[in-house]
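Batch manifest line 442
LIGAND: protoporphyrin IX containing FE
JOB: complex structure
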Amino acid sequence: MINNKAYVINSPLLIQSALRSKDLSYDPFIQDSSEKLFALDPSTMKILKTPGTLEKPALMDEFNREMHGSMLGEHLDKMTRVALLDIAASVNEIGEAFEAKSLYRWVRSVMTIATTDSLLGSHNPIKADPSLVDLLWDYEGGVTPLLMGIPKYWAPKGYEGRAAVQAALIKYYEAKHDLEPDVAEMTKMRAKVFRKYGITDAETARLEIGFLHVAVSNAIPTCFWLLSFVASSPALTASIRDELMAITTINTLDTGKREAVIDNSKFLSDCPLFVSAYRETIRQISSLVIFRRIMQDTTISDGNSSYLLKGGKDVAIAVGVSHMNPANWGSNVAQFDAERFLHEKEMEKERVPTKAYFPFSGGKHLCPGMHFAFSEILGTSAPLVLGFDIEGTDGTTLKVPKIGRSTMAEAVTKPEGEGLEMGAKFTKRKGWEGVTWRFTLA
Ligand code: HEM
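JOB STATUS: finished
ARTIFACT:
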């Protein structure tokens, strides 16, 4: 994938400058990796690699132009509503008590269905056949071997997961389910652009496993780590519960039962500590490296010094390094400090924390799913933290598992070993017995 010698950038201001540069491109990496990741037909690869003309922009350019608007405003709200309906149903299914043998796998299955429902609508094949949840994650775990061209014999799971999910998506796209009204605008836009450029429905399906992959692979581990950090600290749990109470209304239903309604649009305005804990969680687990190819000689600058980057070479933008640099964050950089982002403004006077924080990348490829991820992750965590005591399976306070380092293909770290297997016990809090959950986006 990497062309030749790569420049490594890890200073915050240079990262900003690099992410803004029009001469650094991500397209060559997408083109190279698509063939390996999605097992595409040569005719599709030819379309993906065709340069644009004045009359007809290249497919990737058209995509980039349409991408961001299709996950904002009413399109974002539509996706969020669908995901939150699913999440509320899953939390209501817990009832009064529940033991997850693996907290991570439980969160993974709830959120994979919620996310794919919000993207694919009522004909979501992953919901129709939940065995595809694990198969999608087998593909996710196989991305690095697939990218490295390791044969199926040595790394079968990634190949098998890919084949199963792509087969289900082929039926979905060949039946044109993406054209139905309850499908996310982003999903519709992507398939529309692929068809416009002559890519078949089967090949669209093969490509779109990649979209499902980016939609689940970072948000779901983030939610797991956030829950672990919060549940591991009784004091933090108590403070976040106070904030959540302010955005929750308790109704008595006709049946006499009580319902808690969380206003999902109020996290930013009314739950500063919860939001800060979310941002700090991402800072801790994001070991992202962003790759770009230098299309022509160009310079980047930190305001004081300029650096020449030679065309044809690659750059590795080490965002994760910047997230863990004491020069940016202070001497407690390695600790989880839930309040860290509460003091962003004061800290900025001394250091550069906001400018050192790029978990969603930046510039043209700023993650279009970042607002959805925010609503979904805080939405999943909120009723669990507010309504339940979350403990280890032995009844002791949950411990945050060891955070490892991620692979080059991951933006955030996933739990491994003991962390992956860590169970959790959810017990309805005293006073919350019988309460069910719903969300609004008022
Ligand atoms: C905590 C959660 C998430 C994190 C940390 C994250 C991070 C990122 C990063 C770092 C990139 C850009 C990589 C680069 O510049 O090379 C990216 C791109 C992308 N993300 Fe996310 N993401 C998250 C959630 C999501 C979700 C939930 C969705 C969709 C529902 C999504 C959809 C995308 C897409 C489509 C791209 C490609 C954008 C492009 O090609 O310009 N992401 N994400």
